[in-house]
Amino acid sequence: MIYARGLIKRFGDFTAVDGIDLDVAPGEAFGFLGPNGAGKSSTMRMISCVSMPTAGELRILGMDPVREGPRIRARLGVCPQLDNLDPDLNVRENLTTYARYFGLSKSEARSRAQNLLEFVQLQEKATSTVEPLSGGMKRRLTIARSLINNPDLVLLDEPTTGLDPQARHLLWERLFRLKQQGTTLVLTTHYMDEAEQLCDRLVVMDGGRIAAEGSPRSLIETHSTPEVVELRFTDEVDYTGKLEGIGRVDPLPDRILLYTDDGDAAVNEVHRRGLTPSSVLVRRSSLEDVFLQLTGRTLVD
């Protein structure tokens, strides 16, 4: 579905995407993770054929986006990061009007709109205007609109940003159903749990390059430890030196993280050394631990 080799995107002297290789298979849910400015959005814009590569090779659905952009876009579904629904149209009209851009007949547009409204559970809002809808409803409508042309490939840029947990989980369930039906999904997200839930495979980007690639589980196994111990201390004493040799130490402002193969054994060693944390939490390592290990904790604007 997507093939890229040595893909580069420059804006003047700034290199946003610096020679990445990608392969996305049919029916796969593929994710891009990375801090702000990592090159995720620039890559997605090239895949969606709205921004041409500066250098390298890119094929979407087996076609060259430079020469065959309109043919590719006709087979894509795009859910942008910000909802751009038409406030002058009702919910159903936002779908049927958009369908007409793909050359669908009025009857076919109405039929597909009805099916999609049922799919995203908005059939009761069909005649409502857009403005009163909740954020989750607007997001579901935007995703429904991206599916109106029965796309071969759906691109989702931060699909659940800003939504409450209930709306996020409903959207996850809808996207999982799409994946079950064989639709190829490519998404960017800042939510590590979302990536773990939805993605078969993902890349972590940093500085325009791919820092790591694999399934969520394989990335955790490769770049982190099986367990993490979170220690909190009430007094302001630097305990990090006293924890050396127990595991990889990652001091945070409010707690200390110990990356280790055996969390319980690490806790016992902490106590054996006479340390008395006010609270202890042993948890399994997560994709967020991998993300922070690969990209660092410095905030990027």
Automatic annotation (TrEMBL):
One of its GO terms (molecular function) is ATP hydrolysis activity. GO terms for biological process: response to antibiotic. Residues 2-232 form the ABC transporter domain. Keywords: Antibiotic resistance, ATP-binding, Cell membrane, Membrane, Nucleotide-binding, Translocase, Transport. PROSITE patterns: ABC_TRANSPORTER_1, ABC_TRANSPORTER_2. It is a peripheral membrane protein. Its main location: membrane. GO terms for cellular component: plasma membrane. SUPFAM superfamilies: P-loop containing nucleoside triphosphate hydrolases. It is found in: Cell membrane. Belongs to the ABC transporter superfamily. PANTHER family: ABC TRANSPORTER ATP-BINDING PROTEIN, ABC TRANSPORTER ATP-BINDING PROTEIN NATA. This is ABC transporter. It comes from Planobispora siamensis.
